[in-house]
Structures
1.
Amino acid sequence: MATMRNVLLRSAIIAALGGLLFGFDTAVISGAEKTLESLFQGQYLDLAGYFGRPEAVSAEMEKQLPMLQKTSFWHGVVVSSALVGTVIGALLFGKPADWFGRRTILKVLGALYLISAVGSALAWGVFSFSAFRLIGGLAVGGASVISPMYIAEISPARVRGRLVAITQFNIVLGILLAYLSNWLISLGHFGDLEWRLMFGVEALPAAAFFVLLFFTPRSPRWLVARGLRDEAKTVLEQVGTDTGDVNAELAAIERSLEQDSASLNEPFLSRKYLKPIMLAVMIAMFNQLSGINALISYTPRIFQMAGAEGASALAQSVIIGFTNLVFTMAALLVIDHFGRKKLMLVGSIGYILSLSVVAWGFYSGTGGWLVLTGFIVFIAAHAFGQGAVIWVFISEIFPNAVRARGQALGSFTHWIMACLISLTFPMFADNLGWRVFAIYGFCMVGQLVWVLTMMPETKGVPLEEIQKKLGIR
């Protein structure tokens, strides 16, 4: 039994390293984005000049040239380039995961992470940098789909929430490591090499992720779907089942696949799957409407807006990352006891209170420690609620036959919203000031209403039973 638990835990942790790289890749830009803004200033102006040439635009657009020439717009485009990749990656890798297997695609993602880290560190201009960041985004988007899917499919229901949530733990660990790495590198005063080192260090965990995947089993549910019953049985014997009866578990998976096989040719976007589709889209939209990606991508800039100096702003980023990690660990311990819905309720209330404090801090001009305190509460609320729940919930609510497409839809929605938040935050911060945080807070009132009225509880329900609970026949 101990061996079963060890194989299961080891495989889940290795798969969840995709989440660590996800977090690191998403947050590492925050330490370098101010430097990149200065470094690429001339190229931003060239872009604004090109797109603002009178012969290239209409007379109506010509009136808007001052806005087009704002470098904050082009800086937002560059910072969000990785997030454009995540949108594509979230859509791109779901079907190949059905064809070639979850583990195989995770290896591909590991290779993409490595290429992105090395390429971003060696970038020679705004276009090469954006291209390599986009490649990393492809890996992030793919990992957000495949890592939790793989873990959900190897895990017994009684521990599935905690094991899938390891992905979220690793995401926030990656965010903390990125903040910590950025801060430590800044203390080394490496000059022009500083921003390159910030991106280059990601190559180490990327290489480890790729190699360790060779020591994990393939998904038993994918193996059964491909007729590899004997290998599936061996994997289930290694990772364990809820009842302890491997043959019964295999039979349940086969029955579920048989029931779903008739629907494989049905359009995914159909009335039959409307309820899980809407649940996935709503939880993913609300996740980003909190403004979490603005905080992750622009943490030092936000604290500088509140009056912190450069090094102090990076140090405060580490505090945010550490808080994120601690409250994610707390959520991991209770997600299968209290359930997904209660954590979402606590998180929603925390969002509303903290964003109100942050908006007041900027509005009143008190800033400083009030803003830092507000963001500590904000990140704690996110880690304990949405952050811990989203990938678990999305991986649970779709039947076997459409799980890959459902996971891809949820991740696509999450990343398209993340891209929009990251792209627009510099402009919104310049033009709206404190109001941008008030808007995020108002959106979280909407999330609270949604959780109270529409979100079902999936705690402890076997994957094959959840579709019945959602009325899918």
2.
Amino acid sequence: MENLFECKVKYQKTNENGKQVNVKETYLQRAENFADAENRITEELKNYTQMQQLTVVSIKTAKFTEIMRDEEDGKWYKCKAEFISFNEDTGKEKKSNSTILVEAENADKAYKKLEKELKNSVTDFAIKKIEETAITELYE
């Protein structure tokens, strides 16, 4: 079973002025384990960098319940949504949280995309937080 990993890498690239600069970027990579994630992200990025200058700085498990991708937009937003259901047996509300990754042009569009998607939900919901991430790209 593949998991989602957040991989932070640093490497040198040429900027608009033709100067070599060090950059640090964050990528999401689907993989079976940490070693597989490191191998896959290295393989993905080898076409964009000089391999001897690419360093995987850190890898951690990414915990998103859902990913809403939009190929035309480039920023990734971490959205926290709260789902509210009612237990008829106990008469109590139950709240559960989800973290959803949304790709959008800006935070307002991320909110609208998420709201549109969640309107199809059978439970009530509240969008609690939307924040821009450092994620550059998602590699499936």
